[in-house]
Amino acid sequence: MGKYIAKEGQWSIAIVFILFIICWIFYSFSVLLFLLLLVLLFIFRIPNRVMVCNDSKAILSPIDGRITKIENIFDKRLGESVEISIKNAFYDAGTFCAPFKIGINDIVLKHGLFLCSELKSARIMNERVSILASSSGTDIILRVYAGSFDRKLKLDNLSYNLEVGDKMGFLINGTISIVLPKDTRIHVGLGDELKSGSLLGYLA
144 lies in which domain range? Predict the structure, then answer.
């Protein structure tokens, strides 16, 4: 089951499945429980997808979703940078993975609310985690923001050295931002729909 269904949803699916079977045996076929089971199976599915890249400078999309921001920013740790934000909707596959081979230097979790990500205040009030890492000698930051359907940021037990495609966690409808050096070559545009493993660009 773990190969096809994210572990974050296995308990919920198991409970609904047991209730569905009990209801079917002792009462009647429950359309509501059956539909709920199908929805949960869809939300927590793991697509049969392999992230492989032989170029150590390539940056791959860590999650399915739509690019909502490509913006030059100033980060106090990285200086002049470019930030790419990918919004993951509830109908997108929610597993997110390492976008390239990285070594994790620091992880900062900030507990917060679970507001709709369309609200301007969501980025500063929602639960979020910042992961400071390095790849090919270049410092980068991964910022993961919980969405309104998430009730806890679901991170895997992260090792401090990840290969491209290693699972990092799960989102139902959150946002992932990647903060990169300003001279990064970006190969995507605002509004592009992506699958995890799609090429975002190249480190300089």
Answer: 58-202
